User: What shape does this take?
Amino acid sequence: MRKLLIIFVVILQVILLAYMAGQRENVLRTGKTIYLRTVPVDPRDLFRGDYVRLQYEISNIEREKMQDGLKLLSVSDSHKNKDKKVYAVLEVNDDNVAEVVYVTDKKPEKGKLFIRGRVERFGNFLFVRYGIEAYFMQQGAGKDLEKRNVDGNRASLEMQIALGSDGTAVIKNHRWTPISINLTDLKLDDNMPQSAKIVLTNISEKPVAIVVLPNNGSLKVEPDEPRWWWSGGQEHKNWRWVNENASAALPEDKNVRMLDPDCSYEFAIDFSDPYWLISVNNQEPVAMNKYNFAAWLQFRLVYQPPSKQQCEGLKDADLIWHGKISSQTIPNRD
Assistant: This one.
């Protein structure tokens, strides 16, 4: 009897694994294909083993994007919410990269593009895993890219994902962004950023165009973590970049810069410039170079060009890269 029970359990496990494999194959064959951006890294760090652990930009969800029952989640009950099923509703940008519109604990209605995940942890933001955090790469796959890379450069690995109608996600392939970013010459005064340089480099094998708007308008400020923090049992809002919702100037032909392979463009940053003003606790704006950024209040500089629609009619418009990429953190340069 015991032997029969063991055989039954083994057969059941085989059937379950076969079902799961079949489900994944069906998603790969019939699912909608999108790309998801991972957190930028030095590409050489990824190719030192067979398996890569991935962290996606859509894994960290700010409170403002939490809807329905997720609005009621309490930090004090965070342990109870682990593994809670959630759905991230997505929209696809000009580069076919999906970004989160909102996340909910209710299955979205038919016609919505969404990915299913589970809560990994919850504080004043939601960290979600989607079952696509491990990826197998053949050894040596990064050797060509390593030759083209220099110390400090960061490139975004964008994963090609098949999405099933129920939100199941399966990795199909990957691609590197053609542009890498490097934060250099960062000058600090007691964690107050004074100046820096942002260097964009074409790490692809073909010419790529970028858009350089006046007054560093192609660069944005992005907090390294959501701005809501838990401190002493109370939430407090800290700082925000005053131009986060400002409209950038429309691009002109003179703003287009063509980068041949291995060529770079350098932005000079002066954090005393009014463009970088921040508001602390919703008070009057202050210069960024006068604010002491504590270890938990870091930020990144993000290159984000105008949309395809805004670039229509420009010279070399078909060669403009419309993705975005973020620098190392400031002030810690993580």
Remarks:
- The CA atoms of residues 74 and 80 lie 10 Å apart.
- The longest strand covers residues 179-189.
- The chain has two domains: 32-176, 179-326.
- Residues 2-30 form the longest helix (29 residues).
